[in-house]
Structures
1.
Amino acid sequence: MELPWLSAPAADVPATARTLLGYTLAAEGVRIRITEVEAYAGTGEDPASHAHRGPTPRSAVMFGPAGHAYTYFIFGVHWCLNIVCGREGEAAAVLVRAGAVVEGVELARARRGGVRDRDLARGPANLVVALGIGPSANGTSLIDGSGPIVLAPPPSPVDPASIEAGPRVGVAAAHDVPWRFWIGGDPTVSAYRRHVPRRRT
DNA sequence: GCGACGATTTCG
DNA sequence: GAAATCGTCGCT
């Protein structure tokens, strides 16, 4: 699978994020159709990006070739999945926030335990659980079949007019850029929560 | 080396 | 509204 537009310049990552809506991610017996994403740009361009202050051991994958997975650990509890975008040396990425399970529903139910089907892959950490992936996926290719996750084009095209945009969820910085994109009206899209500062101890 | 804090989820 | 819970990153 060749997806050259994934390597579009980092400045175009919002457009890349929109394009990824409707694509499917398959891993460990479950396939989900992406219904919600967020765009993150690179060094110096996006205060909310992990790569904003330059390369670090964690964010190194973001600076690599497009089409690879960037997984990170958050709050000592959860894993989230990004699709690396942009040209090599740039650090753009698209956070996969929600999806609809289209294959392997039984497996996804077993992994998520007793939630409604629409919630199986609702929210970035829940989506990762439904797909049964984890830290070992970091840095693997999503497009050449060499890794545990495979990205594939939409089974049915997404109507561009149905795509909606808004501020990214839970980010303290850049609250004003509408870099979250979702398929309008889709029940699997996660609820918007504004960033809440933690109480200092 | 130390400490504040996070692209979250879930419960009360 | 707040806790859980720990790796990462910047610097008191």
2.
Amino acid sequence: MAIIVDKEQKRIDIALSCKDLFIAKGIKNITISQIAQEAGVGKGTIYDYFKNKEDIVFEIVNILMAQFNATKEQRINEATSTKAKIKIFFDFFYNPDKADLREIFKEFVSISLTQSSKDIQEFLKDTHERYYAWFCAILQEGIDKNEIKPLAIDLAKGLFVIGDGFFISNTMKGSTQNIKEEITLHLDTIFKLIEVKQ
Amino acid sequence: MAIIVDKEQKRIDIALSCKDLFIAKGIKNITISQIAQEAGVGKGTIYDYFKNKEDIVFEIVNILMAQFNATKEQRINEATSTKAKIKIFFDFFYNPDKADLREIFKEFVSISLTQSSKDIQEFLKDTHERYYAWFCAILQEGIDKNEIKPLAIDLAKGLFVIGDGFFISNTMKGSTQNIKEEITLHLDTIFKLIEVKQ
DNA sequence: AATCAATGACTGATAGTCGGTCATTATTTG
DNA sequence: CAAATAATGACCGACTATCAGTCATTGATT
């Protein structure tokens, strides 16, 4: 009876159109009016597609992460050793091409910590569990192949969270230069300990 | 002259008086007027002692962390094994008595990620480095005593950040119940690997 | 009288709402 | 079948409520 818009697609379009604004200025320094202008729609329209400013950040992170993870899965499958696979898993935290994405991820974490609804927490939990299962599968595969000791599976959770740990720690200090070296050293050392000597 | 107030003490008094408000509602859901009322001063007075709302959170975290760490140093010195010392280091993240402090710490991290000034980043960097040095010293002591392998020192940074990692990861999911078990398992497993067999 | 502390009314900015308009499609009618 | 009309979702921006932060004034002390 009337115009029917692909709501999901438009949500994506709006989110992506103001991505650079978020990266450049940060959520606190942008107004909804600016976002609307950047997206080429009216202010009210923004609220037809998003609950609030934070919701836009969630959408941006979702879109970009999905894109990123599509290639990640492939790269992990191509890697041969468990160590190499695990390193790719943390690639996001130091890949120079992903600096922009990390900038938004920072906002995302900040929001998630203090302002996320039950819905969003549920979503985060699901996402987290899916990735953790994937991570465990990689480790288990290494164990089954006798590349690493069975004990390594007990390190899964602790290893899984070190990406976040390094990221938060470095971001809070304002020094994100050397995450790669830090993560690499840690993983190399862990692998020295858990690798099965042939 | 005129009335001379102990500015530093009053800053502390104001900060502590609204601590519970921050814990109960979170920074986003409190107004400066509420804070002023809770502290029993005028709104303008708040701005004589703090730059903004975020600044109050920094003060609260500083005060409470300082209190907490005073006892922490002692407890670490009392512990005999390196493993026990390291576990106490992460006590903050799961000690049931510190749930309130963690609630504010959450706000603190959230702010630090996206809104901290150069000054505050500098401060965070200093604090971080001091704690990291302490952490390394504990590990080094264990190495010198031949409790753990020399290699363990390369795990320092990665171990140091797992507290933050678990905290962020669990907080984002809204499940802070099992951090203790997770950290304990991780540390126990790491120590199985780095302990020197006698 | 000089000086510092405290204050709360005021201002500017902005998040979020809501009544109304417009464009498109469905339905009716000649 | 074409024109007229009805229905509806998309879109909008003026408006409102709220609140962070300021500053001119008052009050207290020596």
3.
Amino acid sequence: MSKSNNVYKEAYNRALRLVEETRRLPSEPELGALLGVSRTTVRAILARMEETGLILWNKRDKTVLRAPQHRDFFPDEETDTLSQIIERNFMRRLLAGGAEAGMQINELEMAREIGVGTTSLREFLIRFSRFGLIEKRRNSHWVLKGFTRAFALELTEIREMFELRSAAAFCRLPPGNPAWAELDGLEVEHRELEAAIAERFTAFSELDERFHRLVHRASHNRFIVDFYDVIAMIFHYHYQWNKVGERQRNTVALSEHLAYIAALKSRDPARVEAACRKHLESARQTLLASIPDCGQAEADNSAK
Amino acid sequence: MSKSNNVYKEAYNRALRLVEETRRLPSEPELGALLGVSRTTVRAILARMEETGLILWNKRDKTVLRAPQHRDFFPDEETDTLSQIIERNFMRRLLAGGAEAGMQINELEMAREIGVGTTSLREFLIRFSRFGLIEKRRNSHWVLKGFTRAFALELTEIREMFELRSAAAFCRLPPGNPAWAELDGLEVEHRELEAAIAERFTAFSELDERFHRLVHRASHNRFIVDFYDVIAMIFHYHYQWNKVGERQRNTVALSEHLAYIAALKSRDPARVEAACRKHLESARQTLLASIPDCGQAEADNSAK
DNA sequence: AAATTGTTTTTTCACGATAAAAGACATTAC
DNA sequence: GTAATGTCTTTTATCGTGAAAAAACAATTT
């Protein structure tokens, strides 16, 4: 099957939004920059838009003829990257299904089950291995380490080290640094969400990620910044399968964020540390509370 | 060409060492365990040994007929893993050649130059990306970030955080923990090397790695333990192309290690921290001294 | 002349295929 | 009856291939 054209389809859907808003589309290179794809893909999109009667395309002239209907869009399933498909499948097995530690992963079988080639699955597993949940035996299978209490503790330990350091670095940023403006923006978004917490309390996790990434970036350390990928991945999937008490959790986290932001703006290192510690502590508790295998931790940890 | 039989060749060479030392070889499963390969490979090895007249093989009986000659061994080039070949090639370009930051990596071209398939190279790059030296543009090329002063500073920053924490954890290990015995063993090896520093001063880096890995393991944190891979990789290649002042460096490091070991054995946290800090500081200086682009650091760091 | 469009070349992504290596099962030897 | 050997099956490592997407180059247009 070689390669799916999801890049084209996904960009096409986004291009439809542009069609909704304008009478005539900009030049090909401009569209490419706007959609984040190459001109080759832009031209494929324009060609189809002409075919379906959405636009009239003649060289520089790209006039919108009609508003896009619902059926003009490609279905969501077709716009996903292969690695996104694999990732979702894999995480579902890992978190939802009964994936015990020590279980081994069969590339061929798993690729067949998900319906992808072995190469793609292999590449996913290699990329995924940095999250510390799987390990490769040379010339042999992968071993699942399991989403255990020990894992959560190790993850949060690093997170706390990194975030405390990043927060301290944030305080030291000169006043002119754009990060301060970003922080102000995030504060506003927090207040807006606080006011509307009843309706859109699920929007929090996206805001949460942006806030923590901003703090981590202040460290100016690629290893710290990159490590947030691990945290984001875990929290993302974790919350997707664990909705109990979500609203309560988010309300608490939101107010902790606001205190944390206020502390950062005060530039008082002691206050920042306290606010950061408090928030991380409750994040840790939330994560731990959701892991079934209690008592397992000591065993895992002392097994060297 | 599908797959090279380097596993077989490498295991064969190691099996020759056993032939040198024994009159008759053990059972197939035992040999497999000894060489770390499957019985399939063991049997292939035995088959060849019989063919070349090294042994007489009849079911359980595997009698050694003659001592292996030099020409019985497979040449070293043939025993390397593909990923080792790729790694060496890549690191040579990165450290020795003029690999400026921002330069882009072409999978196809590089694969051709090294003489491997694109899949293998891709997988290597994905694995390598966690070292923070390259970055992928989606649906496009990889970008080289360069082995810059900024990189070295970011790397050592994390290293120091992790090692200080691990060393502190080491102090708290109960007296019965096998790590203490391992530490004693390493101390002996250090003393032996100290006595013979004149002859085998290049053997230090291997000892260095084992020592630091032992310390890191005390953290009981997979992210800390895994991070040492990054450090080991950098130091390994770095020293391979930078032999100036090696002996002096190693002599200093050796005595610092001994002080560090003594501190750990004293279990005095303050003393451990001091010894650890001192050693890490000189390791950092050594690394920084070897990077050509001075003054670059500020520019890199403040570029957000 | 600079930017845009038209055309061609290259590169990435993903697959199936194949030999090496591992693993499973059946048989024999002690 | 346990542990070895003999045989067969499955899985991994690697490549070549082909379509999607990017990038480079050439020809227009304003």
